[in-house]
């Protein structure tokens, strides 16, 4: 009786999770570890909740794919990419974020992410996205690919990669504005972003001041004009 040695194609895809919400990481880990019969296995090799933890963990574990949150308190996905890719160009990055704003998509793709999917993705779809980026394919949630095509296109009317007015807002203010423009109540925004209602109110007040707008309706129009909705 002879033993067979697993080939590279038989080996599980080793994934590293980067997100500042531990509960979300636990959910993603459980779903990916569960897997789907008949598809290549995915193994969660490690996780991190900050940029510093991510840089150290990726260097130590050398995963195949990094699932990368875009917004974190100490820098976010683009900063992880900037610090990791020069030393480990073989690692593939897939952004996984609550944000579907054009500027966020473009920023991490320019930094080197192979794809960008939102947190509304199903567990089965996420597993498929991991397998596809590992195989070398770019992966985007619906409509996000258009942002990338526009950003790297010279055609007239292409969306600008940078909007000076948006630069007035912090990342968190943009997140709050995006959900507000979609009709979310303050309490729903707080739950979605894992912050307090009071913090939501503070962000909204700051956005109104910076944009020199006076009400929610005007903010919604402003956000829609900039493709935040």
Q: Care to give the gist of this entry?
A:
The chain has 10 helices and 6 strands; from the N terminus they run βαβαβαβαβαβααααα. By secondary structure, the chain is of the alpha/beta class.
Layout: helices, strands, pairs:
Elements: E1 13-18, H1 22-34, E2 42-48, H2 51-61, E3 65-68, H3 77-84, E4 92-97, H4 102-111, E5 115-118, H5 123-134, E6 139-140, H6 144-151, H7 171-181, H8 186-193, H9 197-211, H10 216-225
Helix pairs in contact: 2-3, 4-6, 7-9, 7-10, 8-9
Core attributes:
6 strands, disordered N terminus, six-stranded parallel sheet, 10 helices
Q: Can you give a write-up of this model?
A:
- This protein has 229 residues and is an alpha/beta fold.
- 46% of the residues lie in helices and 13% in strands.
- It has helices spanning 22-34, 51-61, 77-84, 102-111, 123-134, 144-151, 171-181, 186-193, 197-211, 216-225; strands spanning 13-18, 42-48, 65-68, 92-97, 115-118, 139-140.
- A six-stranded parallel β-sheet has the order 2-1-3-4-5-6, with helices on both faces.
- Mean pLDDT is 83; it is low at 1-7 and 154-161.
- Helix 7 packs across helix 9, helix 7 (171-181) crosses helix 10 (216-225) and helix 8 packs across helix 9 (197-211).
- It is elongated and about 60 Å long.
- The protein contains ten helices and six strands, in the order E-H-E-H-E-H-E-H-E-H-E-H-H-H-H-H.
